[in-house]
Amino acid sequence: MLTNRRFFLTRLIDLAKVGLLGIFLYPPLSFVVSRIPRLPVKVRVRATPEKDLLLVEDDFFLFPAPDGPTSMSRICTHLGCRVNYSEKDDLLVCPCHGSRYATNGKVLRGPALKDLPELPVSYSSKDGYIVTVEDAT
């Protein structure tokens, strides 16, 4: 009878240890593993892209084109750094790890493997050009 109680209490203590370990490990592991995607955000463009050669915003580039402006994300597809425009080389360059993109978003040199995503651009007479920035990472 005593061995059954001892066995039961030992197992109960072991189960409590596993439970406590789970309580302490769940928050950091859920933070690392899960990611909440950003909702799409509509950004009104401050200037007219036909007058400017290239418009650089926080999250995107806006390039003039004959059929209307096109927009490219500024978030590097390698690790999510903000890509800059090099006027001298006419390239988009990631300052973190040196990925290089053509102005159409195609990867020229890695470590990035994916092209920069193109973002939708719309026009309304009231608000002007609007770029929809989506979570592309």
Give a description of the structure.
This protein has 137 residues and is α+β, with helices and mostly antiparallel strands. The chain has two domains: 1-34; 41-133, Rieske [2Fe-2S] iron-sulphur domain (Rieske Iron-sulfur Protein). Helix content is 23%, strand content 27%. The chain has one helix and eleven strands, in the order H-E-E-E-E-E-E-E-E-E-E-E. It has one helix spanning 2-33; strands at residues 41-44, 55-56, 60-63, 70-73, 84-86, 91-93, 100-101, 107-109, 118-119, 121-124, 128-133. Strands 2-3-4-9 form a four-stranded antiparallel beta sheet, with no helix packed on it. The protein has a four-stranded antiparallel beta sheet with strand order 5-6-7-8, with no helix packed on it. The protein is elongated and about 85 Å long.
Write the layout of secondary structure elements.
Layout: H1 2-33, E1 41-44, E2 55-56, E3 60-63, E4 70-73, E5 84-86, E6 91-93, E7 100-101, E8 107-109, E9 118-119, E10 121-124, E11 128-133
Antiparallel strand pairs: 1-11, 2-3, 3-4, 4-9, 5-6, 6-7, 7-8, 10-11
